[in-house]
Automatic annotation (TrEMBL):
One of its GO terms (cellular component) is cytoplasm. Keywords: Amino-acid biosynthesis, Cytoplasm, Histidine biosynthesis, Lyase. This is Imidazoleglycerol-phosphate dehydratase. GO terms for molecular function: imidazoleglycerol-phosphate dehydratase activity.
């Protein structure tokens, strides 16, 4: 089992994360931000990565630190679980439709963090969550996990659908990319020999 376990404590947040890349999509998520919990549950369920998140942050200020640090801690846990990345498929691309909405996520577990976000949201809030923080969550996750991550919403109008399709597309792309490639399970998937 490829597992990662991160405890991240600062003056702003206290976060414990456990992941199992070889799981079955079992989750136990609590961040204090309802919509973020809903999204992280989707991430687990559709990536089949088991995910435990317990985040206690300074929500009396705003949701910025809790959102950002949750992305960082999950990214760090995934990176830890990947180990030397031996045998992984490395690339993943997925489209996630949700009613009128379609989003594509394409990623490379490259060790070179890069982030492209082509998603427009028209509402300032989803539930209590400030929508400007959603891009920040994805950026924080990609940077901490060392992933080249491209997310593009191709079309859609309902903000809940757009955001949920971003997380579901990420989940399905991650599921592909972390999967052990049975044709080359003994090697790191790079001509450089390292990722
Ligand atoms: Mn939903």
């Amino acid at each position: 089992m490829r597992t990662g376990n991160i405890s991240r404590k600062t003056s702003e947040t206290s976060i414990d994360v456990e992941v199992n890349l070889d799981g079955s999509g079992v989750y136990d998520v609590s961040t204090g931000i309802g919509f973020l919990d809903h999204m992280l549950e989707q991430l687990s369920r559709h990536s089949l990565i088991d995910l435990k998140v317990n985040a206690v942050g300074d929500l009396h200020i705003d949701q910025h630190h809790t959102t950002e640090d949750t992305g960082i801690a999950i990214g760090e846990a995934v990176l830890q679980a990947l180990g030397d990345k031996r045998g992984i498929t490395r690339y993943g691309t997925a489209y996630a439709p949700m009613d009128e909405t379609l989003t594509r996520c394409s990623l490379d577990i490259s060790g070179r963090p890069y982030f492209v976000w082509k998603v427009s949201l028209g509402m300032p809030r989803l539930g209590e969550w400030d929508t400007e923080l959603i891009e920040h969550w994805f950026h924080s996750f990609a940077t901490a996990a060392g992933i080249t991550l491209h997310v593009e919403n191709l079309y859609g109008s309902n903000n809940h659908h757009i955001v949920e399709s971003c997380y579901k597309a990420l989940a399905r792309a991650l599921r592909q990319a972390v999967e052990i490639d049975s044709r080359k399970a003994d090697a790191v998937p790079s001509t450089k020999g390292t990722l």
